[in-house]
Write a structure and sequence with these properties.
about 220 residues; alpha/beta; seven-stranded mixed sheet; 9 strands; Rossmann fold
């Protein structure tokens, strides 16, 4: 059996210190209030999630929209003359590695790791590229060893799209596979509608969704 794992809010959670230092950097460089910066970051992140249901939003596109959102809210033009989106991304990537995500240790009490012969990470990347997520996991996670990684920024498709889960299935081959994730739409609906059973991680429980029945039962 092969296990496909979601990253954000399943395997790992964002480090609060990273979120604060990101706001510090943007506030000091752009001269914009933390409230507006936080609102814009969340707003563009949610828009990317919505866009990814039928298409794919690049990281570069997210940063361009972020700056446009900030300029619109503040009525300050020319913010990109102070800090280009590429420079912002470079600095924020460095903060991600300096203040890395927090591994969700309780998850491993729910999953019988020994029942799975192989593993992969299946993640939409948001503001952080898959290459950085992979580097973090390879240096920080010792409970499992991933056989491969599937990142939305690298394949140009996102969960819940069928093309994303097809990429997972192609790498898995003929082995049975189950996907674990926290998002009922992106992870569960995406996997099940692509022919892959799913386990919904919610409130520190795993709820099983069958491809055949598409009904849920608690996984034990």
């Amino acid at each position: 059996m092969h296990l496909s794992l979601d990253f954000w809010r399943t395997l790992c959670f964002s480090n609060p210190e990273y979120s604060e230092r990101r706001l510090d950097f943007l506030q000091s460089t752009l001269g914009v209030s933390r409230e507006i910066l936080h609102e814009s970051l969340v707003e563009i992140g949610r828009f990317a999630d919505y866009r990814n249901s039928s298409g794919h939003m690049t990281i570069e596109g997210m940063y361009l929209m972020l700056f446009a959102s900030i300029e619109n809210k503040t009525q300050k033009k020319g913010l990109m003359s102070r800090l280009s989106p590429a420079q912002a991304r470079s600095e924020i990537d460095a903060l991600f590695l300096q203040y890395p995500p927090i591994i969700n240790e309780p998850l491993f009490e729910l999953i019988a790791i020994d029942e799975y012969g192989s593993f992969n990470l299946s993640s939409n990347t948001g503001y952080i590229k898959g290459e950085l997520i992979q580097a973090f996991l390879e240096s920080s996670l010792d409970k499992i060893e991933f056989n491969f990684f599937v990142f939305s920024d690298e394949i140009g498709a996102s969960k819940p799209q069928v093309d994303f889960f097809r990429a997972v299935r192609k790498r898995v081959g003929s082995r049975d596979v189950v996907h674990v994730g926290d998002d009922l739409y992106a992870d569960v609906y995406g996997a099940v509608s692509s022919g892959i059973p799913a386990l919904h991680y919610k409130n520190e429980q795993l709820i099983q969704y069958s491809v055949d029945e598409q009904t849920s039962n608690f996984y034990s």
